[in-house]
Structure to design on (381 residues):
């Protein structure tokens, strides 16, 4: 058969699977009957090809899950600030093209040999950390500090696609009744929870959160639903600041006006969570604080000039936070218990097709809403 005879057939097949996906439930697409062997031959995906080049594409369907692997039908996937950072800078591109996305929920669709931790039909979220399990830090249970750490979406294909294959170690089950759009917040919430655990706050101690993007907002709501801690939130974007203050029952404050002693909490603020990563913001903070801990979780750009004597004399501790340690199950539980509070942060919902356009908007600083959520499989919601 000559190549040009194949082309119309290929197009027809692609249209067939696209329409099947739009109109039929998953069971029809993946029949369990041994007599019916229909499987999709391609899937919709969003891949990062190089710096500044992200594309919506129809690509080959992922293959069969291998030993200890799980094939997941992705339901919802969030766009992270680090996705946009990688798109703008290419800093973490280790292979290309790569299906992006490390914050997602879905349904187990097929399991490979040896998989015992989950079964077909389970609702799950992905653990974003690709760790080696054998370096000294992994052996000590510090997988987020793995010497060979990569992330889903970069080191391996991620969740901006209809299907993804993950090692079973990166599968975290969530309750079958948990809304899968809410569950897709588990990964960034785990980061926020890890940041809070690094600060080791006592009950009732006030906290200032700088930056009302997803991590700051999720950490603020986590505080609000688990404690009566007085909260201050600050963001240059007034809409975001107002929204998070309302959702987390926090007081809005500008960094310029912030005073460690004389502030709306009525207490001395000794703990700050910075999600901006902005060197100017961090330097400004240091100048305003004494006897304090600043937790740094934002990915920014640029460097900061530090006078170590200032940290010494004022006893200021800077605490780095990288991803999360063992907080993912707790994040899943919190989301299941408080879906409305956390769900208020999700906007807008977009399609896979619209994702490259949204990347461009976010990269240009056009932010509306707090967490952009890609809706991939409506039937699984
Ligand atoms: Zn993320
Ligand atoms: Zn390791």
């Amino acid at each position: 058969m000559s190549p040009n005879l194949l082309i119309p057939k290929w197009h027809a097949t692609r249209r067939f699977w696209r329409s099947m996906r739009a109109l039929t439930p998953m069971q029809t697409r993946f029949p369990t009957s041994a007599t019916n062997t229909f499987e999709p031959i391609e899937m919709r995906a969003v891949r990062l090809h190089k710096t500044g080049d992200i594309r919506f594409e129809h690509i080959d369907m992922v293959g069969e899950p291998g030993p200890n692997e799980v094939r997941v039908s992705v339901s919802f996937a969030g766009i992270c600030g680090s996705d946009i950072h990688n798109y703008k800078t290419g800093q973490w591109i280790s292979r290309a093209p790569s299906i992006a996305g490390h914050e997602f929920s879905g349904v187990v669709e097929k399991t490979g040999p040896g998989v015992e931790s989950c079964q077909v039909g389970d609702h799950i979220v992905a653990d974003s950390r690709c760790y080696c399990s054998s370096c000294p830090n992994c052996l000590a249970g510090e997988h987020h500090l793995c010497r060979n750490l990569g992330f889903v979406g970069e080191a391996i294909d991620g969740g901006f696609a209809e299907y993804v294959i993950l090692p079973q170690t990166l599968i975290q089950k969530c309750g079958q009744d948990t809304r899968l759009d809410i569950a897709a917040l588990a990964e960034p919430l785990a980061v926020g929870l890890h940041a809070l655990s690094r600060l080791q706050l006592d009950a009732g101690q006030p906290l200032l959160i700088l930056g009302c993007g997803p991590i700051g907002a999720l950490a603020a709501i986590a505080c609000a639903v688990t404690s009566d801690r007085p909260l201050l939130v600050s963001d240059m974007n007034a809409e975001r600041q107002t929204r998070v203050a309302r959702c987390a029952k926090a007081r809005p404050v500008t960094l310029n006006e912030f005073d460690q002693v004389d502030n709306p909490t009525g207490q001395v603020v000794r703990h700050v969570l910075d999600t901006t990563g902005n060197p100017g913001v961090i330097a400004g903070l240091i100048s305003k604080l004494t006897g304090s801990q600043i937790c740094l979780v934002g990915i920014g750009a640029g460097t900061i000039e530090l006078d170590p004597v200032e940290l010494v004399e004022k006893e200021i501790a800077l605490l780095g936070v990288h991803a999360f340690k063992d907080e993912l199950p707790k994040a899943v539980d919190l989301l299941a218990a408080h879906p409305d509070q956390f769900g208020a942060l999700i906007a807008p919902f977009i399609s896979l097709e619209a994702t490259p356009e949204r990347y461009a908007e976010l990269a240009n600083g056009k932010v509306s809403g707090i967490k952009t959520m890609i809706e991939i499989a409506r039937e699984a919601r």
Remarks:
- Residues 189-320 form a domain with the Rossmann fold fold (CATH 3.40.50.720).
- The longest helix spans residues 3-23.
- The chain is about 30% helix and 25% strand.
- The radius of gyration is 22 Å.
